[in-house]
Write a structure and sequence with these properties.
Growth Hormone, Chain: A; three-stranded antiparallel sheet; 5 strands; disordered C terminus
Length: 594
């Protein structure tokens, strides 16, 4: 069927009537169609995490190499967000979204077949998997930001808040469902199913998008590709994200890491210079004149640093601090993303009555409170005690996920929703990557100090106990020194030893055979008591390391709170809306009816 194109100028305060296949568009059906795509992209960012140990074992790889299964996805995804958003504005958002779904589906299928490719070619299967994860990320870059641009184009102003609430809630569902679904699939099938599961959803999504989503693009934008802008921006983001990802393993002061940071700065400078001379730049710097856009991006950057690393730290806390297995830790962490999901939906319904900047401020404030409360837990805190404190984080996340996407595009002309959304998601993704690097670095640095301190305190506990024979005390102290040194050196301060109960009762076997049974029983009881005290000491010091990470996260949350407050103070919505309306008249959105 032949397509017809109509340029419809958007008058101030009005919304064009969109059609697809000759019928008026139904916005909520559009939302349902888009969810199949961008939800899978979000889910894949978390579902693989819990399967990494199984993938490492199955593909007979080392941890450093297999970690690139995660890093390759995050790196390519971050690099392409702005570029794909720009292409969507130029060539059509629906078109780019569907291309992204196809690439993502093919990448998922190939990821699941990595072992087959390895057997056929003789190359390591893990290398194929890493490459296909990069292919997946190319597709994912066309799903998340473009879906937001389509939602902003399709939904009338009065319903955008509720729609973005659903869009934001999907992030919470993906964060909650990823580890749990991944754990279920790995335990009951195998790791390949975490990729196979994407394919049927993407097929259904492709059909629904083709049938129900209208095409929107900017007819006035040149189709000329900004090669210089794409290359310099991609190099800058690539260097920055790679330095962040590898900073902990390479060393933050290493020549490679410093060189990448220098490359990122140089790339950014060249990008700015190149864009100033472009008639159709990939990034329109005038977008940053809008306080709402700049403030939302900056707030999201700080939010990303604070929350992404914190979620990983929370999972590690349940595994290393409380002795849970991976799936138990995933279930234990559910209150955070579930609260985020529910709150995002509720906030979306209230968005017409409450300034989104106010919602963002409340969200960042709740994050600060949540981090502050977590800093007061100790080794004796129950799961419920930890869970209710973490609910503040989930609530704050829900408010942020609902408010900041809408706020970032509030004063952006509809014709530039794609690139605007790409920039916003790039700030978020870089914040996420930086947050994981910073908080893991803080945690490992703290644990390398706290575990030896726990060992020192444990030795003092043994020396202070007068009910143990001196020779036995000496043997226990020697064992503690060896265990503490080995744990810190070999595990890199992961704190795994803290989740294990210290059992000293085995030392009873070294007592003389002729010793009375009653005396042996008394010593065994004393050894159990001392063992419990030592276990508690290691758990306390490990908890302190987690608290150090949460303190740093709270600092970034405070920075985000300040950013949101300054944005509210400086924002002049009437002037910004007037400028946006003028831009809309100059650059109308093209509606293509199938």
């Amino acid at each position: 069927m032949q397509k017809t194109e109509k340029s419809l100028p958007i008058q101030s305060g009005t919304q064009p009537t969109l059609t697809v296949r000759g019928k008026p568009v139904r916005p909520w059906l559009v939302m349902g169609s888009l969810i199949f795509g961008f939800f899978m992209a979000l889910l894949d960012a978390t579902i693989v995490n819990i399967a990494i140990p199984t993938i490492q074992s199955s593909l007979k790889s080392d941890l450093t190499t297999v970690s690139w299964v995660l890093s390759a996805y995050n790196l390519v995804f971050a690099v392409l967000l702005v570029t794909v958003g720009r292409f969507a504005d130029q060539y059509g958002r629906k078109r780019l979204f569907m291309i992204g779904m196809v690439i993502f589906s093919i990448g998922s299928l190939f990821c699941a077949m990595a072992e087959t490719f390895g057997q056929f070619t003789g190359l390591p299967a893990v290398n194929w998997l890493i490459g296909f994860r990069a292919l997946q990320a190319i597709g994912a870059a066309g799903l998340n930001p473009v879906s937001l641009a389509i939602i902003m184009s399709v939904f009338p102003t009065e319903k955008r808040g509720a729609a973005i609430g659903i869009w934001g809630a999907s992030s919470g569902i993906a964060a909650a469902g990823g580890p749990v679904l991944g754990g279920f699939l790995v335990e009951n099938f195998d790791w390949r199913w975490i990729f196979f599961v994407n394919i049927p959803f993407c097929i259904v999504g492709l059909i629904m998008v083709a049938l129900f989503v209208p095409e929107t693009s900017n007819p006035r934008v040149s189709k000329r590709i900004d090669i210089a802008g794409i290359l310099t921006l991609s190099v800058s983001i690539f260097c920055l994200v790679l330095a962040i990802i590898q900073g902990n393993s390479w060393g933050w002061s290493s020549a490679a890491t410093i060189g990448l940071f220098i490359g990122a700065v140089a790339g950014l400078i060249l990008f700015i210079v190149a864009e100033l001379y472009q008639k159709e730049p990939i990034v329109d710097f005038s977008l940053f004149k809008a306080i709402s856009f700049t403030g939302a991006n900056l707030t999201m950057f700080f939010f990303g640093i604070a929350i992404q690393g914190t979620f990983l730290i929370l999972v590690l806390y349940f595994i290393n601090g409380r002795g849970y297995d991976q799936l138990q830790a995933a279930y234990a962490s559910l209150p955070v993303p579930l609260a985020s999901m529910v709150v995002a939906i509720i906030a979306g319904r209230l968005s017409r009555k409450i300034n989104p900047n106010i919602i963002a401020i409340i969200g960042m404030l709740l994050l600060v409170i949540g981090f502050g409360l977590l800093c007061f837990i100790n080794a004796d805190s129950s799961y419920i005690d930890v869970a209710w404190r973490s609910l503040f984080l989930g609530t704050g996340m829900g408010l942020i996920f609902q408010s900041l996407p809408a706020l970032s595009l509030e004063d952006v002309p509809p014709a530039k929703f794609g690139v605007g959304s790409g920039i916003f998601n790039t700030f978020r993704q870089i914040g996420f990557a930086l947050g994981v690097a910073i908080l893991i670095s803080v945690f490992t640095g703290s644990i390398q100090t706290d575990i030896p301190q726990a060992g020192t305190n444990a030795i003092a506990i043994v020396k202070a106990d007068k009910n143990l024979p001196e020779q036995m005390q000496a043997g226990i102290i020697t064992g503690l020194k060896q265990s503490s040194n080995a744990s810190t050196a070999s595990e890199g301060g992961s704190g795994n030893s803290s989740s294990q109960q210290v059992d000293l009762t085995q030392y009873v076997n070294k007592l003389p055979a002729q010793m009375p049974a009653t005396q042996k029983a008394a010593i065994k009881t004393e050894l159990a008591l001392v063992g419990n005290k030592i276990s508690h000491e290691f758990q306390s010091q490990t908890t302190n390391a987690f608290i150090s990470a949460w303190i740093v996260a709270a600092g970034f949350a405070v920075a985000g709170l300040i950013s949101a407050i300054v944005s509210l103070i400086l924002h002049r919505p009437q002037a910004a809306r007037k400028a946006a309306n003028q831009a809309e008249k100059q650059d109308p959105v093209a509606i293509i009816a199938d």
